[in-house]
Design a protein that fits this description.
The protein has one domain. The chain has six helices and no strands. The protein has helices spanning about 1-30, 35-45, 50-70, 75-90, 95-115, 120-130.
Length: about 130
């Protein structure tokens, strides 16, 4: 019984996290053309800001959906972790309340990268199929 509760809990965290990353962060950036993010990326000194801004945008959108569905969740979480590390670096001088979201997103990304998507995921279903 305890194991089943853990599976339900982890699935809930993974799905809500992934949808939040995709819908609350990825979609708005796609709709805006990632313009504001391009400026932030340029201010951090990255070369080719449009390229890296779109990489981050698509990582949030596609990576969030992959994490939510549990398909290729570990690689998606690794890419999203890097994006969250950059976000954390961008907010390094801000008060914790400003960087808290990046810390939380990084923590869940790292957990998915380490633990995987769990038994209620497309990754698990693909591993079980003949």
């Amino acid at each position: 019984m305890q194991g089943q509760r853990a599976v339900v809990g982890w699935t809930l965290v993974r799905v809500i996290f992934g949808l939040s990353l995709a819908l609350a962060h990825g979609v708005p950036k796609v709709l805006s053309g990632a313009k504001g993010l391009m400026e932030d990326v340029a201010a951090l000194g990255f070369p080719f800001p449009p390229f890296f801004a779109w990489c981050a945008t698509l990582t949030e959108l596609v990576g969030g959906l992959l994490i939510a569905s549990g398909l290729f969740a570990r690689p998606a979480a690794c890419f999203a972790s890097f994006t969250m590390l950059v976000a954390l670096y961008q907010h390094r001088a801000d008060p914790f309340s400003k960087m808290e979201k990046a810390v939380l997103f990084l923590a869940v990304c790292a957990a998915v990268a380490i633990a995987g998507a769990g038994p209620w995921s497309l990754d698990a279903k693909l591993r079980r199929s003949p």
